[in-house]
């Protein structure tokens, strides 16, 4: 995986490509989620790949194994670099996803990550709405182990769970962490969040950053600052380095 993916949470292809071009973000790794993919379909992926952007296609598939296998076979043909599923779909679904990716790939298959729990989920929601009698830490650790045993390359988790997952699953099992914010940014709908500095300290191999970059006054400079903070442990706030 690449260390930093920019979440392209834009309404359409025109806004997306204009943002990348105007802000000198050629070839940077990007994440395409449901909003943009459902609007533009495979064409947005093809254009990004033609421009040499590594692509994490974040659709979080969760369905019966046969359906996920066929869907992943189609997604692999787009030559994306990383895709994901929900761990809650179970071991057979994860195994089927890998089968589909392998069948649909011309060369190396895309990396498969499994989502443990969304970063918008907290302990209260876990217990009262999802009727889970275990702690967030226990649930995420169990899901991570299930994902590894099923053949996934890694997980999508919050920074708060990275160390436990590494302890249980080893350092080679990939950890990608969304919910990344600079220290003075608005949290929006995220609850289990962290700064790039904190993510780097815990052992996350990759982070996803959206609004902190896409809504910054200088997106390119902010991208470079966040990447430096994550990789080299330099705390940075609005252009200053400490």
Automatic annotation (TrEMBL):
Belongs to the OMP decarboxylase family. Type 1 subfamily. Catalyzes the decarboxylation of orotidine 5'-monophosphate (OMP) to uridine 5'-monophosphate (UMP). Homodimer. Residues 3-226 form the Orotidine 5'-phosphate decarboxylase domain. Its EC number is 4.1.1.23. It catalyses: orotidine 5'-phosphate + H(+) = UMP + CO2. Substrate binds at residues 9, 31, 58-67, 119, 181, 190, 210-211. Keywords: Decarboxylase, Lyase, Pyrimidine biosynthesis. The active site is at 60 (proton donor). HAMAP family: OMPdecase_type1_B. Pfam families: OMPdecase. It is an enzyme of class 4 (lyase). This is Orotidine 5'-phosphate decarboxylase. GO terms for molecular function: orotidine-5'-phosphate decarboxylase activity. PROSITE patterns: OMPDECASE. The keyword Lyase applies. Pathway: Pyrimidine metabolism; UMP biosynthesis via de novo pathway; UMP from orotate: step 2/2. SUPFAM superfamilies: Ribulose-phoshate binding barrel.
């Amino acid at each position: 995986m690449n260390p930093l993916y920019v979440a392209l949470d834009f309404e359409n292809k025109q806004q997306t490509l204009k943002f990348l071009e105007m802000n000198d973000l050629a070839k940077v790794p990007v994440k395409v989620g449901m909003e943009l993919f459902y609007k533009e379909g495979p064409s947005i992926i093809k254009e990004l790949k033609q421009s040499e952007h590594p692509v994490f296609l974040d659709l979080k598939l969760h369905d019966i194994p046969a359906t996920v296998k066929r869907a992943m076979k189609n997604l692999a043909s787009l030559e994306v670099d990383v895709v994901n599923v929900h761990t809650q779909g179970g071991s057979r679904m994860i195994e089927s996803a890998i089968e589909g990716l392998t069948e649909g790939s011309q060369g190396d298959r895309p990396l498969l990550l499994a989502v443990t729990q969304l970063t918008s989920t907290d302990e209260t929601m876990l217990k009262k709405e999802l009727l889970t009698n275990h702690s967030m830490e226990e649930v995420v650790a169990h899901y991570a182990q299930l994902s590894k045993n099923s053949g996934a390359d890694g997980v999508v988790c919050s920074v708060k769970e990275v160390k436990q997952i590494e302890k249980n699953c080893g350092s080679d099992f990939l950890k990608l962490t969304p919910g990344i914010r600079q220290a003075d940014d608005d949290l929006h709908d995220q609850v289990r969040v962290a700064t790039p500095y904190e993510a780097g300290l815990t052992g996350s191999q990759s982070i996803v950053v959206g609004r902190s970059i896409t809504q910054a006054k200088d997106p390119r400079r902010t991208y470079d600052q966040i990447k430096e903070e994550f990789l080299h442990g330099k705390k940075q706030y609005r252009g200053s380095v400490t």
